[in-house]
Design goal:
436 residues, alpha/beta, Aspartate Aminotransferase, domain 1, Aspartate Aminotransferase, domain 2, 2 domains, four-stranded mixed β-sheet, 14 helices, binds 4'-deoxy-4'-aminopyridoxal-5'-phosphate, EC 5.4.3.8
Length: 436
Amino acid sequence: SPAEGAQPTASSAAWLERGRAVIPGGVNSPVRAFGAVGGEPRFVVEAEGAVLRDVDGNEYLDLVGSWGPMILGHTHPEVLEAVTAAASRGFSFGTPNPTEVELAEEIVRRIDPVESVRLVNSGTEATMSALRLARGFTGRELVVKFAGNYHGHVDALLASAGSGLATFALPDSAGVPAATAAQTLVLPFNDVPALEAAFAEHGAGVAAVIVEASPGNMGIVPPTPEFEQAMRRLTREHGALLISDEVMTGFRASRTGWLGLSQMGDAPDLFTFGKVVGGGFPVAAFGGRAEVMAQLAPAGPVYQAGTLSGNPVAATAGLTTLRRCTDEVYATLDHAREVITGAVTEAFTAAGIPHRIGRAGTMFSVFLTDAEVTDYASAQQQDTALHARFFHAMLRRGVHLPPSAFEAWFVSAAHTGDVLDRIVEAIHASAREITA
Ligand code: PMP
């Protein structure tokens, strides 16, 4: 069981050194490097339920959940069985296959406004393709995004982007052509007047507004109903499409993602999905009204493709995971959210640590600030140094939080009973430790 006190990390350290020799920073995705919290990222060799096991033999209760996909817990037996069976029938065919159709049907069945959907391999591909489709459909080029919203590492969407860019305090990325950046308008989130002003000035040129359905990449910052309604009204009035990025919230914030909780009224035009939709395998998707999706090749002139898209093994993982995401699973996630955020509020209040809880359905995050968090600027008021200390106090007690103050905490169907008790205990002890 997870021991209190420093864990041995010699093997993780050795792997990091080997990794650094051949992989930039030793990691294949920046936030994994522990850059914001310091110390050694753990090299994990095994995961089951709510538990990660590292190369040094340490065990951690996992609140990262592979950054969202592992909604049923790690290595869920039913998913494992289905994936193993699928793999035994072949890895990739390069032809259409029945499983990809079944996965598309499952998405369309659950998300009412999505009539047609295409499968891709990552959230980045989904948003990139949705943007191209919106531009092809409207014949326009400008894209509106919001500060603190992350949509993957798409050139046009890397400005003020949250997630790793927030963690490492980067305003944007090097290597994005100025001409591409010039096609993106970045606006403050939840700011209706700013959105109205942008449309008043540029409305005729806007192809799409893309928004994280309920942002999770600056911590959880839900949209106000007024903001959601303004996005829908202004895009309609000006002939632009509204793209709801549900890569993180889809099939997680609720059974129907943020859509089921939204107060927008009329639905967005396009949606992007990822994470849960692949159950831990590289699957993502974008979809929407049939009329818009019909613009995609081979039916229409907007090109989009993928050697491994609809891969039968990955699609099996996604399909089995979605089918297993019952109302009971969402009730379990919600209970875990309530228990964990309750413990944070109690422990942090007792220890005098300023904090706010961000919440979107079953999803949540913790902000180390006194101020109300409604946008990127207010999220950045956090005490990130205190977060780093809390992170390590938890890690030493065998609980692995996201290594950044700007990320959601992810729970799963395996976060129940004793797992929750141990997390609650660690929260109380860690809060006391960092204020001692
Ligand atoms: N959109 C959102 C809302 C995301 O949270 C993410 C990833 N965290 C992405 C897009 C990009 O997905 P991927 O990392 O699979 O490319």
